[in-house]
Amino acid sequence: MKARHKRFMWIAIGLLIIAVAVTLVLRAFNSNLVFFFTPSEVAEQKAPKDRTFRLGGLVTAGSLARTSDGLTVKFDVTDTAKTIPVTYTGILPDLFKEGKGVVAQGRIGTDGVFKASEVLAKHDENYMPPEAAEALKRAGHPIEGKVFAGQKPVVTQASSNIKP
Amino acid sequence: MSIFKYASPSTFYPLAGKIAPWFAVVAAMLGAVGLYLGLFRAPVDFQQGEVYRIIFIHVPAAWMAMLIYLVMAAYGVMALTFNTRLSSMMMEALAPTGAMFTVLALWTGALWGKPTWGTFWAWDARMTSTLILLFLYVGYLALINAIDDKKRADKAGALLVIVGSVNVPIIYFSVKWWNTLHQGYSVATSGSSMDPSMRMPMLVMTFACWAYAIAVALWRVRAIILEREKEAAWVANLYVASPPKTSGARA
């Protein structure tokens, strides 16, 4: 074995060991690496109860309501399996929409309502001109976006039951 | 040992000088076409409107940031296995461009994040790992400049870059492995969720960035070669045989 083959082998072994170590560390810290918890995870008591956390999912269509003061909004966040009601006082980001993704930071009250102090829009990976989106909708194939890892594709238009 | 012919700084120096301008021309042409198609020709997005056009800079920049790091790591492996000086010089030449693209990706991402997400920055896995990538670039440059002995500096730098390369798959797969604020892949080998009229300018811009990175790295490596090999006879001959060229001084 030539010296340079030996050196290459040591680099390869070293890199492999580091990769394995990092993988194990990341797996161990997995719960701290998620940016948000889904409603199902909250229902399974995986989210912290004593401190703030982020709740992520889709805004249930038709759930958005404003209270009389005009600033406080109420909406439901769902991952299609579980749904959590959210209240928030403040300005919503431009991309905030019913049926679209959202990440809210706050804590969950004893009444099961999530009181958000910050609301961020989380949009999906679809990019297309409005005409194309309209055409897809007319053809009965509304855009399906996956907003969070492991989420089942959600038909954003409630009217449609045809899957592409 | 013909494959190592251009691994020698003395043979690579003129070769780099010859091919770099071609890549610069390609970069300028593709960049102009890509920006024109992206900013004037591509349709608006159905959700984001005009603001999505940041992807024509943001996505190529982010891809380049990761790719350049991997190329540097490959040169690092070559530097440590074959003890080739040129590999270390190429690493040094690539690092500032990689750092520049990382800054560009983070910066454009922040500018886009405010109107779309509602925040400039969030500590999600994608953004945090990209910030670590920037620290790796800056750390590498700081390390090799902090050690006076060039041979030791090269070795330490190569080792840092190789170890840091585990971060690149973390950046790439972060949106798949964890819940992130950053959206998932729009362009993948299995298909794309981006309209072809938007994807095409983005790919043109990506190739423009490739050509730009190659051109700049080659010009920079020529300067590094001259600086490091200044004691070598062939460098002296460059200036004795012919009067100093302006291109040599500039590069």
Tell me what the structure shows.
Chain A has helices at residues 3-28, 30-33, 39-43, 130-138, and strands at 53-59, 65-66, 72-78, 83-89, 101-108, 114-122, 144-145, 154-155. By secondary structure, chain A is α+β, with helices and mostly antiparallel strands. Chain A folds into two domains: 3-32; 35-122, Nucleic acid-binding proteins (OB fold (Dihydrolipoamide Acetyltransferase, E2P), Beta Barrel), CATH 2.40.50.140. In chain A, the strands form two sheets. In chain A, strands 1-3-4-6-5 form a five-stranded mixed beta barrel. In chain A, strand 7 and strand 8 (154-155) form a beta hairpin. Chain B has a two-stranded antiparallel sheet with strand order 1-2. In chain B, strand 1 (187-188) and strand 2 (191-192) form a beta hairpin. Chain B is globular. In chain B, 43% of the residues are buried. The interface between A and B is large, with 48 and 44 residues.
**Could you name the CATH class of the largest domain in chain A?**
Mainly Beta
Helix fraction of chain A? 25-40%
* Helix-strand makeup class of chain B: mainly alpha
Shape assignment of chain B: globular
DSSP helix fraction of chain B: over 70%
What count of helical segments of chain A does DSSP give?
4
Q: What is the molecular shape of chain A?
A: flat
